[in-house]
Specification:
binds pyrroloquinoline quinone; PqqC; globular; pyrroloquinoline-quinone synthase activity; PqqC-like; Haem_Oase-like_multi-hlx
Length: 223
């Protein structure tokens, strides 16, 4: 592993949202039903914007080979048919936790701070270079481990959530590993100069801040 890859991996190691106090309480089984439902509802706002930011990234990629690598991220979330995909699985998670899907779709109850954080991520992907956009997705280097811990924590501490609702997290273990592997290969290939490498690191730091700020807002509102 070269120095640049080490520096990239060090960013989420320092500041990924698995370290956030709200997330720690989630994993320790300390969240009330209201807090956990608040997190699920607010995180849906992030989830539904993932394919939008990926469509913005796709539109910057001029090479068909690159678009072929990126395009599956949109169908992973949206599915190829109604009733499939990550967004649908998140709605099922909401239902398993007692939140009607209409409440998730309506967006009512999404906190201003969560909107701000998600807008920040979408805007980075609207205005950033392909290198910055792809680098910002590299928080997912840490996501598969987090998903495994989260599934175990939900099964152990929150039995009132139907385990059928946890498919979103199960699917993300493999998807996150594949996505982060693809994104890392692109970033290592594209960042040829010191200035490029600095921009990639800054974009990843910004993304960590997006996820951290989202949890700050949920923590403040519900705890
Ligand atoms: O639940 C999580 O902790 C978590 C984190 C992240 C992430 O690191 O941004 C993503 C997801 N989930 C996720 O489900 C997902 O689809 C996703 C896409 C991306 C991205 O930046 O392209 N991150 C994430």
């Amino acid at each position: 592993m070269n120095e640049f890859e080490k520096a990239l991996r060090a960013v989420p190691a320092r500041r990924y949202h698995h370290l956030h106090p709200f997330n720690r309480r989630m994993h320790d089984g300390l969240l009330s039903k209201e807090e956990l439902r608040g997190w699920i509802l607010n995180r849906f706002h992030y989830q539904r914007h993932i394919p939008i930011k990926d469509a913005l990234i796709l539109a910057k990629l001029e090479d068909p080979a690159l678009r072929r690598i990126w395009i599956h991220r949109i169908t992973d979330q949206d599915g190829s048919e109604p009733g499939e995909g990550g967004i649908e699985r998140w709605l099922q998670l909401g239902e398993a936790a007692g939140i009607p899907r209409a409440d998730l779709w309506s967006g009512a109850g999404v906190l201003p701070g969560v909107r701000l954080a998600v807008d920040g991520y979408v805007n980075l992907c609207r205005t950033g270079s392909p290198l910055e956009c792809v680098a910002s997705s590299l928080t997912e280097l840490f996501a598969p481990d987090l998903m495994r811990t989260r599934i175990a924590a939900f099964e152990k501490h929150y039995p009132w959530i139907d385990p059928e609702g946890l498919h979103y997290f199960r699917a993300r273990v493999g998807q996150g590993r594949r996505d982060s592997g693809e994104a890392l290969a692109l970033v290592l290939d594209w960042a040829r100069t010191e200035a490029d490498r600095t921009k990639a690191i800054k974009a990843l730091e910004y993304k960590c801040e997006v996820l951290w700020t989202l949890l700050d807002a949920v923590d403040r509102a519900y705890t």
